[in-house]
Amino acid sequence: MAFKPKTQEYTSEEGGNKYTFQTVLPSVWAKVEDKITDKGGKLLLSVAMPEMLEKVVVAPQGLVLDDFESWTELEEVTMAAYRFQRKGK
Question: Which residues make Cβ contacts (< 8 Å) with residue 45, sequence separation at least 6?
Answer without folding.
Answer: 75
